[in-house]
Specification:
It contains 3 helices and 2 strands, in the order αααββ. It is mainly alpha-helical. The protein has a domain of 66 residues.
Length: 125
């Protein structure tokens, strides 16, 4: 029937295994998955870290690129660029806290907390 054509066990078994649609657990332990809340937290933290590291890389490239125009600039390493980005981030947090504090000082009692945000009271409108 198959003159000159050798069919081995592997040529039949391999496609059968690959086309199988049932999952084979075989008594293996199933790794626990994250809950929806913890998965969202991991995604938020990993996105923050990605943006931090990408920003540090961009700052390093820009800083070291400026060295050709300004030779007195020191060479910036990746670790120092991460520190620089974190320092600027902390500075922005301080400035934003000062702005929100000034808002409250300029209009005392005009803002009331509603959930996670604030809204104007009837007197401050």
């Amino acid at each position: 029937m198959f003159d000159g054509l050798r069919i081995s066990r592997h040529s039949i078994l391999l496609p059968a295994i690959l086309l199988s649609t049932t999952p084979a657990m075989a008594g293996m332990p199933y790794p626990p998955t994250l809950t929806d809340l913890s998965r969202l937290r991991v995604e938020a933290i990993s996105f923050f870290l990605f943006i931090l590291l990408a920003s540090a890389g961009l700052i390093r490239l820009l800083w070291n690129g400026l060295r050709s125009s300004f030779p007195r600039l020191p060479r910036l390493s990746y670790a120092r660029s991460i520190g620089l980005v974190m320092l600027w981030g902390l500075l922005f947090i301080v400035v934003l806290a000062m702005i929100s504090g000034a808002r409250e000082l300029m209009t005392p009692g005009a803002w009331e907390k509603q959930g996670a945000t604030y809204r104007l009271t009837g007197e401050g409108k």
